[in-house]
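Appendix B, example 12.
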Amino acid sequence: MAKLYGALFTLSLIWGTSFLFIKLLVEPLGAWGVVFGRCLFGTVILLLIMAFRKEWKGFKGLPFGMIVLVSLLNNAIPWFLIALSETKITSSYASLINATTPIWTMIIGFLFFHNRLRLFQWFGIALGFIGIIILSGVDVTNIKDQSIVGLLTMVGATLCYGFSTHFTKKYLSTIGVTMISLSTLIVSAIISFIMVLITDRTIFTMMLEPSIFGALVGLGVFGSGLAYLLYYYCIQKGSPEFASLVTYLVPISAMLWGAFILNEVIHLSMLTGFILIIGGVYVSSRKPKEKNIPMSKTA
C-alpha cells in the first residue's frame, strides 16, 4: 500500500496545476486544441520513455475496441468537456466538481459492475467531500452565478472518468501500464487532431509560441504522459475507486503550489479541510479485515 499511496499523492501534485494550464490554454487554442496539445506532448514523452527502457513491442494483441473506448472516456471526451467548462466557469469551481469523481465511480461500480459498497466507504467519501468544500472556501450562494452549461459539462467529465476506470480495471488489467497510457493517448491524439482540422487549423502555429508551448509541456508531458502512468498503476494495483480518490487530493496540491510558488497564505480552514480529506482517503480506501472462519472437521 505504501507504493500505491505514494503514486496517488505524486499524481495529485502533478494534476494540481492542470486546471491552471487548461485555463491558460483554452482561450488561444480552443477546447479541442487543448486536448490535442496535451495528447501530443504526452505521447511524445511516453514514446521516449519506452525507447529508453527498450520496452516497445508494438500494438499487436491489444484489445483495440476497448482501447478506443477507454481513450474516449478517459481522455478525449472528458478533457474536451473540462476545457469547455472552463470557458464558462472558474477553474476553482471546475476542480470542485471534479472532486465528485469518487462518488460517481462508486455509484457506477455499484449499478453497472456489481461492486459492493460498504458503509465505511460511503462515510470516507462524504468526509473527503466535506473537506473539499472547506478547503476551497466555496460560497454556495455564488453557485447560481456560474454557468449551468459549465457545471453540466464538468459533471459529464466526471461520469466519463467513472466509467473509464471500471473498464480499465475489468478489461485492461493484464496490459502494461505504459502501453495502456501510450495507446490511449495515441488514439486520443488522432481523434482530437481530426476535430482540430474540422474546427480551427490555425492553432498548429500558435502552439509554437513560447508561453503556449511551455504550458503544453506542463499539461502534456507531466499532466498527461507521466501522470497517466501513475493513474493506471493506481487502477491496476488498487481499484477504480482508489484511483479516483486523487481528485480529492488535487485541491490540496493546488494549495501547496500556491504557498510555495506564489507565497499564498495557508489559512486554518485549509488545514482543517486537508485533515478531513486525508481522513476520507484513508477510510474509504482501507480494506476490511477478513474474519477467520474455523474449518469444519470431516470424518
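The chain is about 75% helix and 0% strand. Residues 292-299 have pLDDT under 50 and may be disordered.
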